[in-house]
Amino acid sequence: MQVKTVRASSVKEAMEQIKDELGSDAVLLHTKKYREGGMLGGAEMIEVTAAVDETQSRVPRSAAAYTPPPAPILPTNAAERYRMNEEAFAGGTVGVAPAAVPQGYDTYAPAYQSQESMYAADGYGTAAAMNLQSPPAAAPVQQTAPLQPQPVEQPAPPSYTQHVPPPATQPEPLAEPHAEHEEDDASAARIRLLEDELAQMKTMLAAMMAASQPKEIVSIRDALKRQDVRKELREELAAKVPVADINLDSLSPRAKEVLAGYLSQVMKFTDGLRLGAHGSRVVAFIGTTGVGKTTTLAKVAAHFVLEQNLKGALITADTYRISAVEQLKKYAEILGLPVEVVYSAADLKKAIARHRSKDFILVDTAGRSQYNDFQMDELKQLLAAHPRMEKHLVVSATTKEQDAAEIMARFSACKPDRIIFTKTDETRSVGVVLNLLAGKELPLSFLSNGQSVPDDIIPATAQRLAELLLRE
């Protein structure tokens, strides 16, 4: 069995690909929908898996090997043929003696003789056998003069030197018993395949009909509830906007405008990271373990190098994980940036001084537990190496709201200047961002939505956060 999976933007296009590659006998095995593209949904795609049974068209060997018995050979002498016809009319049977095939016969003679024998067995004789309906011959042929029988007047049989066209139908040879069983098994298999294909088609049609039905309208209020936005914030939004706006379809452009306007009033955004006009900008990324600090740093560095053509340097203080140092070195090599490893605040101060002519310096730090006071004190000493170092607290959007709130409280001792939320693609609920930052002075700088460098990061704005909160 040959299995094939295709992806297309529509069911029709996928079915055409399946038919082109596997033929019309292909059976659908699996279908699914998914979105391909950026963090805000991307294009809807169809994935279809189908298979074709390569043995379906095979003929049973017993049936293919069967050879019909040779037909009896009629005599060539006209008088002898006439005598045999008379005997056939008189006794109901025809006795045909075996003889060599004359040169006047063509390739259709055996089939014609089998038909003639069939008619003779029914008592009609050779003359009746010649009345088979058949298409006219391709070219005129010579015929011998008909015989004139004395006892009974009847039309003379045609000469056997003429070309005899093939009969309309030929009797099929009887299949052997085991061949019948194989044919039954093959028929049952084909029926099962057809049933499976019909079931798959019904499933696809049901999905297509469901997709064509008008979707349920979800209001802004209900969408925020699904995102686990706190009740008091939803009520505050309802009080600030007209009733007609709060009940808008959450997928409409107007709904995004309404929510973005509210977010800009209750939160602060920095729209990414902007470099100053004088001197290099030193930025450190801090946070707990496993939130994506190193990957986020690489995305920001790639943005500066590839899109703004700026000069920079990378510094890592994460000496607890060898993999972190190697990972950052690979990113630096790809981007053509120098990278340094530091073990103390003094090392960091010297490294920053060596690269003070660069446009930007990005510092990666080791993950720290908010409950480990020693680690938190060590981090504070490291960050004190440069007075104008800008600190971005990195928090995963998959973190429980209570834990995220405690992380923000504990890391406040390091005086973070910005906050970044990562892994927004790994959760359906990003209400934690609004819940934690509403009414706070700490601005949101970036939203990260995947592992791809440098693509999966966007500068944070009220409009982009609104799109995340109102996504399906």
UniProtKB/TrEMBL annotation:
Necessary for flagellar biosynthesis. May be involved in translocation of the flagellum. One of its GO terms (biological process) is protein transport. Residues 279-426 form the AAA+ ATPase domain. InterPro entries: AAA+_ATPase (IPR003593), FlhF (IPR020006), FlhF__GTPase_dom (IPR047040), P-loop_NTPase (IPR027417), SRP54_GTPase_dom (IPR000897). Belongs to the GTP-binding SRP family. NCBIfam families: FlhF. Residues 280-471 form the SRP54-type proteins GTP-binding domain. Signal peptide: none annotated. It holds the Pfam family SRP54. Transmembrane segments: none annotated. This is Flagellar biosynthesis protein FlhF. Residues 135-147 have a biased composition (Low complexity). Keywords: Bacterial flagellum biogenesis, Bacterial flagellum protein export, Cell membrane, Cell projection, Cilium, Flagellum, GTP-binding, Membrane, Nucleotide-binding, Protein transport, Transport. One of its GO terms (molecular function) is signal recognition particle binding. It is found in: Cell membrane. CDD domains: FlhF (cd17873). It is a peripheral membrane protein. Residues 135-186 are annotated as: Disordered. It comes from Selenomonas artemidis F0399. Residues 148-170 have a biased composition (Pro residues).
